[in-house]
Amino acid sequence: MTTGSLLAVDLAIAVLAAAAWLGGGAASAARRRPLALGLAAFALLATLARAFTTIALARAGWWFAGEKVLIAAPLSLAAVVVAGPRLLRAPGDIRSLAVPLLFAGYAQSGGLLVTLLHGYPASAGVGLLALAGVVAATGVSWRVLGARPSRMVSRAALVVAVATLVTGTGLAVAPEAAPGVPHGPGYPTARTADEPTRRFALTAGTATVSVSGRDVAAWAFNAQVPGPELTATVGDVLEVTLRNRDITRGVTLHWHGYDVPNSQDGVPGVTQAAVLPGQEFVYRFRADQVGTYWYHTHAVSDVGVRMGLYGVLVVRPAPMTGVDVTVPVHTLAGLALPEPRTEPVEAGVPVRLRLINTDSTTHRYALAGTPFRVAAIDGYDLRGPASLVDTAVLIPAGGRYDLVFTAPPTPVALFVDGRPVYSTGPVSAATGAWPVLDPLTYGVGSPVPWSRVDKEFTLVLDRGLDLRGLLPRYAHTVNGAADPDIPSQVVRLGDVVAFTIVNRSQIVHPWHLHGHHVLVLSRNGEPATGSPLWLDSFDVRPGEVWEVAFRADNPGMWANHCHNLAHADAGMTLHLMYS
Ligand code: C2O
Ligand code: CU
Known about the structure:
By secondary structure, the protein is of the alpha+beta class. The protein has helices at about 5-30, 35-60, 60-90, 100-120, 125-145, 150-175, 300-305, 565-570; strands spanning about 195-210, 215-220, 230-235, 235-245, 255, 280-285, 290-295, 310-315, 325-330, 335, 340, 350-355, 365-370, 375, 380, 390-395, 400-405, 415, 420-425, 455-465, 475-480, 490, 495-505, 510-515, 520-525, 525, 535, 535-540, 545-550, 555-560, 575-579. A hairpin with a 2-residue loop joins strand 14 (about 375) and strand 15 (about 380). Helix 1 runs antiparallel to helix 2 (about 35-60). The radius of gyration is 28 Å and the shape is elongated. The structure holds CU-O-CU linkage (C2O) and copper (II) ion.
């Protein structure tokens, strides 16, 4: 079983156990003897079964099991110790079982809530809060059910509840000193240089665009979705003037995957102020990496990108041959872009398809009718990519794959999630059952380009309750915290930085570091054996552990976030900072 499914099974068992204990308690309070005994017996078994899932998760990695071992397991043990023997004795008065069973239910629920609301890392404060909750709920049940605990017991319970509540709250809510991101003015100014320059102007504004014959309200660059395709030849300087006509929440341009100088990175509040209606900002950087990239607004990025503020950036090598097609996939108001197109290509002509995923979720791409190679991922050429046939590729949110092939005499077609988007003629193919390429084993390996690691970080991705802002929210968290409370990763220029990304949630998190490509070292402990993979966007699926590394060679303050932009806006953003 994968760690992802183990996490799901463990959660399901915990929910069932809690519900069965509570149900058993309620049934015995109502003197429904068989029901009470049946539910309680089930709960006991489920609670014991959880010992196995917890141990299996701990073996997959402490990140997956920390709070389960330290908080949920002791609470479950208390539940079994208190309710188990009484249950086995099956007393004549079934009502006398009510409080012990309810206690077991509260204990099981307490552990479950710690997992759902807090997660990793476990802390004493959270453990005490859970204990306070269990003691208080048990005390209330006692009263309500009219059972008479001795004075001493009820006083002790009250004292324990209050003391743990106070200490727990103190420990859980006390702000830690997180090296914050200095927000506000003081952004570095754009450099100027006298080099051959390609100039573009992009004006952001609300617009009505037509998709598949329907009029759609969008936010667009130059009134089109996607925005104009920006192209350059390697070595050119790109100068892009961004204007905002009427996007009231502001816009910026972020060059996704292009490792520009920090001042050009387009992150509002970090590298520049958002460009407000009537304002402009000029971006300028040298196009010194060839490859397939894209640009998008980084101001209220979730809404902005979804509404259409994105476009393609392609930097080509000097002499260009063959057919070169960009396929930026996007979902605009529920409609799929780009609209399908068909262009015949003469047999023997080299073709490059630049696949770009500008959505917030993974897409599946399948090229039918020809063998092909994956020449590049995230703008970086692969080493020794073998020819593939009838194989699909999964591209994470923000990611790009370049597929190359020589046009055969017969038509070829590209399908995205089963929908044809590009073809050279009529093709019918069922691509749904094709195997999916694993880039970690594709192409020819080469040794890691450094022999030491100077800094290591671990990012544990999860969901949790964030109480630090004005309103409590169920945030997407990193190491138990949400933006802006996630400590920055501080590195020095020249450091080799390794980071481990652990996904203990139930959803995919496409990870994206600005300003650097990271080299994939391993996934779930298995070293990457294929071509070196230098990525800027990669899917970390539930239960997965990725180890990646990069050289800190681009000073500044860089966003490091989930590229499911709704997650990024709901807390899953931190920063990499040079000291
Ligand atoms: Cu494509 Cu910070 O984003
Ligand atoms: Cu995410």
